[in-house]
């Protein structure tokens, strides 16, 4: 019994579809591998950067602590001055907003 041309074309089409699936599968695996490698490299870079930033912060904190230990009087004076300036700024802001609020409450 001879195959008719439609069945033969169907077999060829099925074979082409199988080849296309295999090709797409291989390309997908390659792309996933490349993406995995890039993500791993990016995470390693971010981890290194975070570690460097943490080490820098530790070094700076140690430097500040050393200065504070060497000059306790200057440090306490600087902190006291910063507190006084902050208090004065807060006082002036509070009194200026209070005067502004009083002017809005006049009913006469």
From TrEMBL:
Segments crossing the lipid bilayer: 73-94
This protein's UniProt keywords: Membrane, Transmembrane, Transmembrane helix
Protein name (record): Uncharacterized protein
Protein source organism: Ciceribacter ferrooxidans
């Amino acid at each position: 019994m001879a195959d008719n041309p439609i069945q033969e074309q169907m077999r060829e089409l099925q074979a082409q579809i199988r080849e296309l699936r295999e090709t797409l599968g291989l390309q997908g695996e390659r792309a996933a591998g490349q993406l995995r490698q890039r993500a791993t490299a990016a995470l390693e870079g971010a981890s290194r950067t975070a570690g460097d930033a943490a080490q820098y912060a530790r070094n700076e904190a140690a430097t500040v602590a050393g200065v504070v230990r060497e000059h306790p009087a200057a440090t306490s004076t600087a902190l006291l001055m910063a507190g006084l300036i902050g208090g004065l700024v807060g006082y002036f802001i509070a009194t200026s907003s209070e005067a502004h609020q009083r002017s809005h409450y006049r009913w006469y």
